[in-house]
TrEMBL record:
Protein name: Vascular non-inflammatory molecule 3
Family: Belongs to the carbon-nitrogen hydrolase superfamily. BTD/VNN family.
Organism: Nipponia nippon (Crested ibis)
Name of a matching Pfam family: CN_hydrolase
Top-rank lineage group of the source organism: Eukaryota
Glycoprotein recorded as keyword: yes
Taxon lineage: Eukaryota, Metazoa, Chordata, Craniata, Vertebrata
Gene Ontology MF term list: pantetheine hydrolase activity
Length: 316
């Protein structure tokens, strides 16, 4: 008799964990995504239209995730704004948002999609991770209701956050991070009342996560490295290559070397906005990187990284 699907997933997850434990390295992947953008509109679209656009982008991301898993990747990072794009108002982004629970709820959206409010994006991302036995990192939008008893509650009665999520190879939500240092154009989002320092353990090291503009600030970037001692940082970004010395590859490589950690950097790709430059950066320099200002094509990068670079004899 063939094993049930849940048992098969559990066996695959256990095998992946054992393989990772058997080595001091892991295979990491990032995908630079040429995001399919919404039509310019001053009015909110319907939830169905919003989901249709997000599914188009997730179709592309799913192909990258499948290919990364086929090549043996344990984790893949996808870009900031990679599922719905950018340049929204507070009102027009609302149909794209979902209520993302705290990971302590121990939730696998792929197998229990109705446990919380409708969350088709989280369900699909969870299934991508589960079906391919890989950690999946994605950037989506979170919404949280608030009321007049909260003096900082916005007038529309909700907080809206630029949010990173991580699903493990079983499809379980294991990390949620709300971006704290918002770029000046991100008026559609709120920042959390306190900066979040989000970490999670894997069989191949301790990970931290933050988003794009956060990398320029002490909280959370320096705190994760110097105080919480993460081994690797997950970095969804929508990085514009502007001003001298703020090109993505050089800056992010220098940051990883200076901080002494792995940086898994996944950028959005839009040459009209000078967005390109992704890579897998280590304390010793880039393991691999991509920079393409000529075409509108996405790119998948993979490399074998040290699981615990601080323990390496070549650690700077």
């Amino acid at each position: 008799m063939l094993p049930s699907r849940p048992l098969l997933h559990a066996a695959l997850f256990a095998l992946t964990a054992l393989q990772a434990l058997a080595s001091d390295t892991f295979i990491a992947a990032v995908y630079e995504h040429a995001v399919i953008l919404p039509d310019a509109t001053g009015k909110p679209v319907s939830p169905d239209d919003a989901l249709a656009l997000m599914n188009k982008n997730m179709d592309v991301l799913e192909g990258a995730i499948k290919e990364a898993a086929r090549q043996g990747a344990h984790i893949i990072v996808t870009p900031e704004d990679g599922i719905y794009g950018w340049l929204f108002t507070r009102e027009t982004i609302y149909p794209y948002l979902e209520d993302i629970p705290d990971p302590v709820v121990n939730w696998i959206p792929c197998t229990d999609p109705t446990r919380f409010a409708p969350a088709p994006v989280q369900e699909r991302l969870s299934c991508m991770a589960r079906n391919n036995s890989i950690y999946v990192v994605a950037n989506i939008g979170d919404k949280k209701p608030c009321n007049s008893s909260d003096p900082s509650c916005p007038s529309d009665g909700r907080y809206q956050y630029n949010t990173d999520v991580v699903f493990d190879p079983e499809g379980k939500l294991v990390a949620r991070y709300h971006k704290y240092n918002l770029f000046r154009r991100e008026t559609q989002f709120n920042y959390p009342k306190e900066p979040e320092a989000v970490t999670f353990e894997t069989p191949f090291g301790k990970f931290g996560i933050f988003t794009c503009f956060d990398i320029l600030f002490r909280e959370p970037a320096v705190v994760l490295v110097s105080e919480l001692q993460v081994d690797s940082v997950l970095f969804p970004t929508a990085w514009m290559n502007v001003l001298p010395f703020l090109t993505a590859v050089e800056f992010h490589s220098a940051w990883a070397m200076g901080m002494g950690v792995n940086l898994l950097s996944a950028n959005t790709h839009n040459i009209n906005l000078a967005m390109t430059g992704s890579g897998l950066f280590t304390p010793e320099g880039p393991a691999t990187y991509h920079y393409d200002s000529a075409t509108e094509e996405g790119c998948l990068l993979l490399a074998e990284l040290s699981a615990r670079p601080r323990l390496s004899p070549t650690y700077p």
